């Protein structure tokens, strides 16, 4: 579970820092789709949904980002609005990729 939280943290930071949110969403789809668990299995749908939920929690401020020394991230309401706008797009593509395997 901890590794999924760290993974979600990294994706949330990537999204917030990205200038192009659509490109960030595509990157997130790729990263989540290619993620393997400890047994070298692709993530199941519940794990994918959990990752998106934790990403949202980081972006909306309910969870604090895990930052590297000297790293600073400022959240804006716009980041959350843009994430919510692409969340369904991301989830739809994750489930389609899962069905195509």
Give the radius of gyration: 13 Å
Report the end-to-end length measured between terminal Cα atoms: 24 Å
Query: Structural class from helices and strands?
Result: mainly alpha
- What is the percent of helical residues? 55-70%
Mean pLDDT: 91
Taken as a percent bin, the fraction of beta residues is under 5%
Gross morphology is: globular
Spans where pLDDT lies below 50 across 5 or more residues: none
List how many beta strands DSSP finds.
0
**Number of helices, where a helix is a run of at least 4 consecutive DSSP H or I residues:** 4
Written account of the structure:
The mean pLDDT is 91. The chain has one domain. By secondary structure, the chain is mainly α. The protein has four helices and no strands.
Q: Strands, helices and their partners?
A:
Elements: H1 2-17, H2 21-34, H3 45-60, H4 77-100
Helix pairs in contact: 1-2, 1-3, 2-4, 3-4
